[in-house]
Specification:
Blueprint (H helix, E strand, L loop, with lengths): L4 H13 L9 H10 L4 E6 L4 E6 L3 E2 L8 E5 L4 E3 L2 E4 L4 E10 L9 E10 L5 E5 L1 E5 L4 H10 L13 E2 L4 E6 L3 E6 L1
């Protein structure tokens, strides 16, 4: 296959005139650029995958929640970078019940999984998060089987225990995307 040199040169000239970043800047990009040139504000970048702790606000039980229910967490301590508080202690962290299975006859335990969604930084920027906590209740299958034999099957209706995640339980979550926060200099 023979391609004329002139066609290649024209193609390269056309590509060179297209800007490398043809996307329009977002509102966050404009704010970050303005803060970078400001005497009173500065942008601080939180990279994707940055870990920090969250704590559960109330008990979550596989007996009383449904998949999709809203769950509230909070920041147990300030999150700071470069001497600037980016997320204050006590800030609400939003989450949901990702999975729930009720306890069942035969000694099968309940289980529940909660996951975090997002938190707001001190400047109001929403920071998307990823992370979850799963708990399984106590298995009582052996007890149910023994009771089933001793009571001619009636004891087999014994259920396992519900899964409970206690209020105040802390676990590590991660930022899901790189986010720029604007703080005072």
């Amino acid at each position: 296959m023979h391609v004329p040199l002139r066609a290649i040169a024209l193609l390269l000239a056309g590509v060179a005139t297209v800007p490398l970043n043809a996307q329009q800047p977002t509102g966050a990009d404009k704010r970050a650029a303005a803060a970078a040139n400001s005497q009173t504000e500065m942008p601080v970048i939180i990279p994707a995958g940055t870990p920090f702790k969250v704590a559960l606000d109330r008990d979550i039980s596989s007996a009383s929640v449904n998949q999709g229910d809203t769950v509230s967490f909070h920041m147990p301590s300030d999150y700071s970078e470069f001497g600037h508080v980016l997320i204050k202690q006590g800030t609400v962290v939003r989450g949901t019940v990702a999975q729930v299975d009720r306890r069942e006859a035969g000694g099968n335990p309940g289980n529940v999984t909660v996951q975090v969604r997002s938190v707001r930084a001190v400047d109001g920027t929403r920071i998307p998060l990823r992370g979850s906590k799963a708990v399984v209740g106590k298995n009582r299958q052996t007890q149910a089987a023994l009771l089933g034999v001793l009571t001619l099957g009636i004891g087999a209706t014994k259920k396992g225990l519900s899964a409970v995640i206690a209020a105040g339980t802390e676990f590590t979550v991660f930022t899901a995307a790189t986010t720029t926060i604007i703080v005072a200099r």
